[in-house]
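To whoever picks this up:

The nightly regression suite flagged 5-oxoprolinase as changed. Nothing in the input moved, so I suspect the structure step. Input below, exactly as stored in the fixture:
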Amino acid sequence: MVSWEIIHKAMEFIAEEMGVALKKSSMSPNIRERMDHSCAIMDPMGNLVTQAEHIPVHLGSFRIGVRNLLDYMNKEGLNIEEGDVIVLNDPYISGTHLNDVMMVSPIYCSDKLVGYAVNKAHHVDVGGPVPGSINPNATTLYEEGLIIPPTYLMEKGKLNRDVLDLILSNFKSPYTSIGDLNAQIAANRLGILRVSQLIDKYGLESVRRGWEESIT
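Regenerated output under the current build:
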């Protein structure tokens, strides 16, 4: 039987490695230099399994944000399948401001959902009337920038080009934004890979037991 501490520490390093990949792959100084990004792994119910030592406001919002997302998907009759990537920045779902673009990717093992790889990253601009999308004169959310509800950026591993084009057409630094969005996708892919490798090494039940101990 594998000690839960081994699983717990392995999961911590997975979240940290996701953050390193996101930082090094990004194009904007907000992420590459200021490190305004965060990564985590959640269980299928939206419980926080592990998170890296990144931005506190992001980390504190992950559990609420993912649960809100799952509630939204359930109400809309939508599923998150293997290879999907959900993108959103709606503060009433994700829990932070519009600049914090959130990505959620499911982790599957033998066709079973075992969890989610999640990250948030502060984009340099998400539209709106002012540079940087931090509008001091805004009295409504609509004056701050583009509001992205939970949307399939990728479906079953295939990029949804229409969604990407819509986002980039509204973000005022599209060449920077495409790099950061790709970095977020890559970070989640790395998280999925590392969790899958952990399951291959120790078995799904051992990993699940370790997660349960970490959560409680």
